[in-house]
Each structure stands twice: as C-alpha cells, then as structure tokens.
Amino acid sequence: MTRISKRHKANLGHTTETIATTVADAVANLKKFQNAKFDETIEIAIRTGIDPKQTAQAIRGSYSLPHGIGKKVRVIAFCDGDAATQAVEAGAIEAGSEELVKKVEGGWFDFDVAIAHPSMMRFVGKLGRVLGPQGKMPAPKAGTVTPDVAGAVKEFAAGKISFRNDEGANIHAPMGKKSFSNEQLTDNINAFLEHIESLKPTSAKGVFIRKVIIKSTMSPAVPIAISA
User: Fold this and answer.
1) Cα-flanking dihedrals φ and ψ of residue 143, to 5°?
2) What is the pTM of this model?
C-alpha cells in the first residue's frame, strides 16, 4: 500500500478550494499548501486545442518572464573562435564546436539549454536523437539557433524559458519559485498565458486554450479559469 505523507494529506485538505478561478486566486490557493524542505518550482500546464500531428500547428518558442524563474540556468553554446570566448563571458558553462558536440554525443547532458550559431548546425544536427526528446535541441523558433550567441546565452542564463507542445497538445513551463511573492507569480503567469494566446496557429479550430493548471513541485494541481 502506498504511504501518504502528512504534508500530502494536509495539502489534499485544501483541494476543495481549488475550483477554477482567477490567476491571482489560484496563486493564493497554491501558497496555502504546506512547503517542502526546498524552494519548490511553480509549474504551469496548458492544454491547447491544436492538432499536435499537424506541423503547421506546432507551438514552440522562448519567452522572458517579467520576474524570471528564480533559478540559474546552465547554458552551453555551440560556436567557435571569438564567439565561444564571448559566450563564456556571457555565462555559458561550456562553449565549443565539434569537440563539444562529441562530448554531448557521448552522454554528457549536465546543462539546461543549448545555444548554437547557425554555422554549427551541420555538426549539431546529429544530436537531434539525444537532445530532441529532452527538449534541449537548438532550434530557430526557440531562439536557440542565432548569430548572436552571446546575447542568447545571457538571456537564457538569466531565466529566459523555452517551451513546445508535447504529443498531447500540452505546454509545460516553469513560472518561478514558491518563495516568489504572489504578485510576481501572478505577473509571470498572466504574461505567459497572453504570450501563448498570441501564438494560436491560424489553422487551429475551436477553443485554443482549453485548460490551465498550476502546481508546485510537491503539490496538487490548482486550476485557472479560462476567459471566454
């Protein structure tokens, strides 16, 4: 029999208050749950009305939240020469060309985001099999393939997030830490929802954003009401 922790039992006692409501109220309800022994990440999950099998309806990109995500992001950069030096100065934990590709190909994945100069994609392309499933493969739509490698490194190291829909048409992304103020989390969530709404594919029919929930790493989900 699965053992339920005291914290989880206490958190379940608040679920009657988690009917779909405004972002501000959802954040307030989420803050009522007992804290874990670490600063939990607040995550959002958005169920969209796209057809994930249609390439034209794919949703993918990057976005800088108003208050960041409260986490130092480990960024690597596929580039060479002066660009590699500038990438490290901008905050990349490693920068290189073919040698870095070989390191990743060999099983090194201790990073969160990979940035690539367009000229490097002839080497980086082979990593699609290993980085694709992890959501770390550089892509122009995500802002991670760019001539301005140092600029991209600086933005992502500061907390810029990347996102894409999964096979179930859902989008998942971090919205900050539980230690953030209610106002900071509310600002981040509202801004991200507005951004996702702006990305609705022209070929997508019917309701675009169908369900939204937020949760912390260890808490039950709290639904957010969707505007008509």
Assistant:
1) 75, 15
2) 0.77
pLDDT in tens, 167-221: 999 999 999 999 999 999 999 999 999 999 999 999 998 999 999 999 999 999 9
What is the signed CA dihedral for 62, 67, 68, 70, rounded to 10 degrees? -160
Contacts with 145 (C-beta within 8 Å, 6 or more apart), sequence order: 115, 116, 117, 118, 121, 138, 139
| Rg value, the chain, Cα | 19
Pairing of β 113-116 and β 161-164: unpaired
**Helix locations, the chain, DSSP H:** 6-12, 23-31, 81-90, 98-105, 121-124, 128-131, 149-157, 182-198
DSSP code string of 19-79: SSB-HHHHHHHHHTSPP-SS-PEEEEEEEE---TT-GGG--EEEE--TT--SSPPPEEEE-
